Amino acid sequence: MHPSHVPETVFHTRVRNDALGGANPFEWRDLSSGTIFANRRIVLFAVPGAFTPACSETHLPGYEALHGEFLSLGVDEVICLAVNDAFVMFQWARLLGAGKVSMLPDGNGDFTRGMGMLVARTDQGMGSRSWRYSMVVEDRKIRKIFAEAGMRDNPPGVPVNVSGAPTILDYLKST
After folding, report:
1. Smallest Cα–Cα separation from 59: which of 69, 74, 76, 44?
2. Residue 80: active-site member
3. Which reaction is recorded as catalysed by this protein (predicted)?
4. Cα dihedral sign for 141, 38, 60, 104?
5. In the chain, N or C terminus with fewer CB closer than 10 Å?
6. Is the distance from CB of 140 to CB of 5 less than 8 angstroms?
7. Which range of residues forms the domain containing residue 59?
8. Which residues pair with 30 in a beta bridge?
């Protein structure tokens, strides 16, 4: 059973600050769930890990490609979440040329745990990770969640069957 509202947690992010200058003009910024989700319509999709095959080949690119359509349907922001740190999320987006979708690091898995979506991927040497899912959130309330079937620890892989961008887009068009 998933919560009816997004869990309250703090995300440790890195943001660009050109005033810092130099080769690494980024600084830490903590963002709360309230800051991200309050009074906003958000599409969030969670992936098992940055740089992993299905996440890199299908999941993130699908949301990046349809980003404009989400915004045209009243979505304020499209967010990709992974139990990875801010540095990994930044480099993954950079490698894929993903600049429309916001990358949200859940490095300690606090949000993912609160969602009931934290699974072990220890057989693959990946520690704890998010199960693959997507959701529509309006002012912190989870309106609809699409979680991939068979949630369990140490799956051989988690395909993108129901959590991809077309599914969320169809849902938004029907509401």
Report:
1. 44
2. no
3. a hydroperoxide + 2 glutathione = an alcohol + glutathione disulfide + H2O
4. negative
5. N
6. yes
7. 10-174
8. 12
- Looking at 55, 79, 89, 169, which residue is catalytic? 55
Contact yes or no for 32/10 (Cβ under 8 A): yes
105 domain residue, yes or no: yes
- Total tally of structural domains belonging to the chain: 1
Supply the pLDDT for residue 18: 87
Q: What is the pLDDT of residues 91-105, one digit of tens each?
A: 999 999 999 999 999
List the structure tokens of 91: 């480099």
Dump pLDDT digits (tens) for 72-89: 999 999 999 999 999 999
* DSSP states along 27-80: EEEEEEHHHHHTT-EEEEEEES-TT-HHIIIIIHHHHHHTHHHHHHTT-SEEEE
Residue type, 29: R
Tokens of 28: 């830490």
Is the pLDDT score of 17 beyond 70?
yes
